[in-house]
Amino acid sequence: MAKLPPGLSPQERRVLCALGVLGAMRRACLERLLGLPALRRLVRAGAMHPGPVCSLTPLGRAWASQLRGSAPQPPAQGPHALAVADAYAALEQAHRQGLIPAFFWLPPREAGRLLALGRRDAPTVLPDAGLDAFGRAPCFLEVDRATESSRRLAAKFAAYALALPSVPGSLLLLAPPSRRTLAAKLLAPHCFPWRVVTSPAELAAAWAMMPT
């Protein structure tokens, strides 16, 4: 197993853990979270592929696996994965600024297991991520890029409505401005806590307003 290098900062450790499940992140986001010198250092160490979109090499994924204490997951790819990574970057930056507490970023399978607690049946929905922080009810994140039909979106919200009464928690939906009205209309009949935002920058404020 590849040995973790000495001197990794807490910020580098958190970002490596997140990249281990996010798969890729825009270089601009990584520069904001790590700083250019740290990003270059990870590239030189062979842990990260450079480019406008950065991802972990096999060595970097091995480090992320050790830091998380779990086996690596297949990296997500494509525009949706980058949209989810943008959401993570915005929340991590808000934490650095002291706007929200430290949080664990749960990938879809872990978030789905948490959502399924208290239910006998298997989860019928896998969130894009889960946000878990000490002293707060977990929050489940869905990133909508307006590629799903309204019917599929409604079915997803109905699945949350079955799960959330058994598991204290809430739903954050990140959607384009053009989908805000539709999403709010589909969510309105459900009693669990939810909030629709239209940019990653709004996520921290929305999460701070969710029930704890």
Overview of the structural elements:
By secondary structure, the protein is an alpha/beta fold. It has 9 helices and 8 strands. It has helices spanning 10-22, 27-34, 36-44, 58-68, 79-96, 108-115, 150-163, 180-187, 203-208; strands at 24-26, 48-49, 53-56, 104-106, 129-132, 139-143, 170-174, 194-197. The chain has a 5-stranded mixed beta sheet with strand order 4-5-6-7-8. Strands 1-3-2 form a 3-stranded antiparallel beta sheet. Helix 7 packs across helix 8 (180-187).
**In DSSP terms, counting alpha (H) and pi (I) runs of 4 or more, how many helices?**
9
Report the helical percentage. Answer: 40-55%
Tell me the overall shape.
globular
Largest sheet: 5 strands, mixed
SS-based class: alpha/beta
Spatial strand arrangement across the major sheet:
4-5-6-7-8
Radius of gyration equals: 17 Å
**Overall residue-averaged pLDDT value:** 89
How many strand units? 8
Task: Provide the fold topology.
Elements: H1 10-22, E1 24-26, H2 27-34, H3 36-44, E2 48-49, E3 53-56, H4 58-68, H5 79-96, E4 104-106, H6 108-115, E5 129-132, E6 139-143, H7 150-163, E7 170-174, H8 180-187, E8 194-197, H9 203-208
Parallel strand pairs: 6-7, 7-8
Antiparallel strand pairs: 1-3, 2-3, 4-5, 5-6
